[in-house]
């Protein structure tokens, strides 16, 4: 997700950047949860 953030900041105007951010907000929140929730990680890795 960081690459999308860097790209939008570097390459897009404010309006386009806002549209992209609105479009990926749900994915960003989901990945944040998946990457930071220790209980989820432990349970997920127990099946790997």
Describe the structure in your own words.
The model has no long low-confidence stretch (mean pLDDT 90). The protein has 3 helices and no strands. 88% of the residues lie in helices and 0% in strands. It has helices spanning 2-11, 14-36, 38-46. The protein has one domain. The protein has 48 residues and is mainly alpha-helical.
Uncertain residue segments = none
First-residue to last-residue Cα separation: 23 Å
What gyration radius follows from the Cα positions, in whole Å? Answer: 14 Å
Number of strands: 0
Order of helices and strands: HHH
Write the layout of secondary structure elements.
Blueprint: H1 2-11, H2 14-36, H3 38-46
Brief account:
By secondary structure, the protein is mainly alpha-helical. It has three helices and no strands. The mean pLDDT is 90.
Provide key terms for this protein:
0% strand, 3 helices, mainly alpha, 48 residues
